[in-house]
């Protein structure tokens, strides 16, 4: 029996190939773990990212058949007239991004001669996301509150479409209708603008992903 095993001993080449196969198989988990480690080390990444679907690219969002084009605007900005200058800066920032976000700005885009209520309702219904710039003047403006209520009626489950942005407002004065939503506190303007952009982009990615999965 011993001599038979020696006679049928595998050739050196086959031993090396089997060893190489074993090494390559054992190296796969370490390579995946190293990639996971590298992803967690980069800003804005989390370990859960590795088990989520890959993000939808900008080209997919901008594609002609994208769910993005089902509405006229990507973002509707709800604000007080007193805060118009800041809002114009935000709109300029969003529209200047590579995604060329389509923003509804009431004083610029409202149709002359139409009722204010009609314009506000149409803007809410025809926008994917709504940015609420909540300032002391916003809290005193009945039209801002009306538009906020319209937005909440459109998306009562708070699926990321309503984006509250607080500026110069204490937490105790935060509208009770929005208490179940996380908000962006505007301290540094540039950082807040980027957060708004990322939030809108995240929603559009989820929208396109869910639309693609339904068609498949």
From TrEMBL:
Pfam families linked to this entry: TIR_2
Annotated stretches, region: Disordered: 1-58
The keyword Cell inner membrane appears for this protein: no
MF-aspect GO terms: Toll-like receptor 2 binding; Toll-like receptor 4 binding
Annotated Basic residues bias: 1-11
Keyword set, alphabetical order: Receptor
Gene3D superfamilies per the UniProt record, alphabetical: Toll/interleukin-1 receptor homology (TIR) domain (3.40.50.10140)
Record PROSITE patterns: TIR
UniProt feature, compositional bias: Low complexity: 17-42, 49-58
Domain TIR: 71-207
GO CC aspect terms: cytoplasm; plasma membrane
GO biological processes: positive regulation of canonical NF-kappaB signal transduction; positive regulation of chemokine (C-X-C motif) ligand 2 production; positive regulation of tumor necrosis factor production; toll-like receptor 4 signaling pathway
InterPro entries: TIR_dom (IPR000157), Tol-interleuk_rcpt_adapt_Tirap (IPR017279), Toll_tir_struct_dom_sf (IPR035897)
Identification of the protein by name: Toll/interleukin-1 receptor domain-containing adapter protein
């Amino acid at each position: 029996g011993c001599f038979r095993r020696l006679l049928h001993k595998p050739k050196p080449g086959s031993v090396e190939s089997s060893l190489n196969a074993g090494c390559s198989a054992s190296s796969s988990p370490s390579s995946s773990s190293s990639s996971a480690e590298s992803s967690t080390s980069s800003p804005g990444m989390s370990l859960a990212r590795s088990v989520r679907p890959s993000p939808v690219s900008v080209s997919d969002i901008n594609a002609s058949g994208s769910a993005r084009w089902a509405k006229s605007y990507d973002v509707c900005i709800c604000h007080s007239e007193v805060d118009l200058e800041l809002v114009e800066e935000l709109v300029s920032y969003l529209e200047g991004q590579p995604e060329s976000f389509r923003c509804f700005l009431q004083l610029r885009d409202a149709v002359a001669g139409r009722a204010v209520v009609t314009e506000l309702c149409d803007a809410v219904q025809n926008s994917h996301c709504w940015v609420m710039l909540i300032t002391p003047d916003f809290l005193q403006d009945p039209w801002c509150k009306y538009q906020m209520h319209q937005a909440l009626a459109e998306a009562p489950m708070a699926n990321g479409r309503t984006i509250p942005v607080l500026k110069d407002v204490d937490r105790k004065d935060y509208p009770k209708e929005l208490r179940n939503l996380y908000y962006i506190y505007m301290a540094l303007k540039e950082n807040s603008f980027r957060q708004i952009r990322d939030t809108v982009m995240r929603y559009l990615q989820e929208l396109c992903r869910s639309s693609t999965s339904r068609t498949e």
